[in-house]
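So, can you check this one?
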Amino acid sequence: MVWQISKEFDFCYGHRVWSQQLDSEFSLSGCLACRHLHGHQGKVIVFLQSDVLNNGMVTDFHHLNWFKLFLDATLDHKFIIDSHDPLFETLLPHFKNKQHLISHEAGYQTPDLSMLVNEPSHIVEMYEGYIIVDFVPTSENISTWLMGIIEKKMSRLGVRVSHVEFLETPKSRSIVYNT
């Protein structure tokens, strides 16, 4: 037997899919709206599974509280930008050479705000809002990134992540499966 549980998490974020291309035969227009800076009310659904129950559970739902803290502290009301985005140096001019970025264990970078001590507070606040990744922040890539973060942590409890669903909107989702 295999048991599975899931838990949902919500957060707001912005991104830009700079690599977006459309085939107007299928999309009915050539509008590349996702290339614009825009935001979403995202939802992540984490599916955990095990073939052994521990105290009658796959794991306690509270064992995912750390993930909620990660989302709130790292991604909520932040802008996810690909370090390869052609607009990177326009949007982050103080860091256009991609120096003075702080690398985080979870596979992203943030601007080193100590480099901005002589800047006005609104400039510092702008840079506080960037999460820099090395992939185009599509729904598929974000769900894959989050799955890796969750897998690494939950493996310490002997719990497997079977899949992660990421809803960019209530009607648009991506799912990545652990094979």
User: Anything to note?
Assistant: The chain has a mean pLDDT of 94. The domain at 3-177 is CATH 3.30.479.10 (Tetrahydropterin Synthase; Chain A). The chain has one domain: 3-177.
